[in-house]
Design goal:
Largest sheet: none
Number of helices: 6
Helix content: 55-70%
Number of strands: 0
Distance between the termini: 39 Å
């Protein structure tokens, strides 16, 4: 099976309203039974919530979030002419990067395997690698402000 085909949903008929409601109720009952079996609490305890640690973890995640797009802007400036940089950046960030977690989760939920959702990001990485290797030209000693 190709990586692109792995990104497509398999069984659209299983998403009917009655089927979805039945599966949701069955899942909730099974989940509650499993959580009860392992003595998982039904509510959170404010006494066990460690605010400083959670705050620091959020700060670290925000720092990682700022590190992610930082190298993307200079790379796109070198790969694309100045006037054409906005579209590829916003398309990749918004549509592909924004919807990829949704597609990955939907694939994982549809197939019942948490790792099957990884096929879609891997497919995008492979497609980006092939396009980058074949179509992006070297920009050393090229005037990026000149019209192409």
């Amino acid at each position: 099976m190709s990586a692109i085909a792995a990104c497509l949903p398999l069984d659209v008929g299983a998403l009917s309203a009655v089927g979805t409601k039945t599966r949701t109720v069955a899942f909730a009952a099974e989940l509650r039974g499993t959580l009860d079996h392992f003595s998982f609490p039904t509510t959170a305890s404010r006494d066990q919530f460690n605010k400083p640690v959670v705050f620091m973890l959020l700060v670290v995640l925000l720092a990682y979030m700022t590190l992610t797009p930082t190298p993307a802007a200079p790379a796109l400036l070198e790969m694309f002419p100045i006037r054409a940089m906005s579209f590829p950046y916003h398309f990749a960030s918004g549509w592909i990067g924004g919807l990829l977690p949704t597609f990955s989760f939907a694939i994982s939920a549809q197939r019942g395997n948490i790792y099957s959702g990884l096929s879609c990001p891997v497919a995008w990485i492979a497609i980006s690698l092939v396009i980058g290797l074949l179509f992006l030209r070297e920009t050393k000693d090229v005037d990026l402000t000149a019209d192409v």
